[in-house]
What we know:
CATH superfamily of the largest domain: Butyryl-CoA Dehydrogenase, subunit A, domain 3
Radius of gyration: 21 Å
Structural class: alpha+beta
Strand content: 5-15%
Number of domains: 3
Number of strands: 10
Shape: globular
Strand order of the largest sheet: 1-4-5-8
Amino acid sequence: MEHEDKHSELEIIRESVIKLCADFPNEYWRELDRERGYPTEFVQALTDAGYLGCLIPEEYGGSNLGIREAAVILQTIHRSGGNGAACHAQMYIMGALLRHGNDQQKQAYLPDIAAGKRRLQAFGVTEPTSGTDTSRIRTWAERDGDEYVVNGQKVWTSRAEHSDLMLLLARTSERGSGPKPHDGMSLFIVEMDEALGNGIEIKPIRAMLNHNSTEVFFDNLRVPAKNLIGEEGKGFRYILDGMNAERILIAHECIGDARWFIEKASTYAKERVVFDRPIGQNQGIQFPIATSYAETEAAALMSAKAAQMFDAGQSCGAEANMAKLLASEAAWKAADACMQTFGGFAFAEEYDIERKFRETRLYRTAPISTNLILSYIAEHVLGMPRSF
């Protein structure tokens, strides 16, 4: 009975998000992609509907929902032809503040985030010289009385220009000062509206897809010590809590993308006539689409399992990583099959396929690459020697 109630609740959320997305058709996303714009109206609509505050407890004005509900929201956005990347970080980086922030920090930020008065959508972690090896970040936060003075640089910091708050990971002691390479990093809440032009400079990065990515430069940025989350030197442990959530949510976005591509391809294959027969009658067209369907549904099962385990408080690192791996690969293959099915028309902007093709390719690379997930499975699941 409980399972049926949960299924019904998820269906209600899905139907509501479909209705919301109908107000933001393909033309809306196409124009944003052309102009490299930010979907302000769409994000506001999600906020007003309470979706971006879904993981925030009710006592702070949120909906107190779980990862499964958040996953349905993002999957449905992508299934409808949109893109949740403009705001999905507000869901998955929330965990660091929820689990490790103190009462004063939660009271100061969560109600405003839930109400849409402030956005927490920027995550300052990756740096030009460190890449995936987070232990080698160089951005430094030096304690100075009741403040920290921050100097350094971040890259691929998406939504920095459209966020009021940033979670910033910086070193507060040298690498090697603790027993583990990731010791000595601390996590801060940075109030972007106050810091911009006063210690922070943001430079947009024009990339293959419209992801609102930026470089962020820190020049003697002063951050109040009260904005330190948890204990100094343990910041990396705090962001680890959000990484499983991130992988699970992005896996569901990929499932939404894959299903969008499969529906597009299969519908077009039945309608498009070449050599006096629908192209979908040809097995050369049928088989890639059918294979993508099977792979997508299998990835969806793993993604759903990971979300259920996360909400149950179970250890789900392997499942979250496998979900992201399988879903991103399924989405990419579905995208390629769709491109092949449409032929030349797939490259035309008006069909939206080339836009979604570019968007879905990202997730084989970021937020964690396919190879690193395979390394994780080999080492932590199969017990093989660490390869790096």
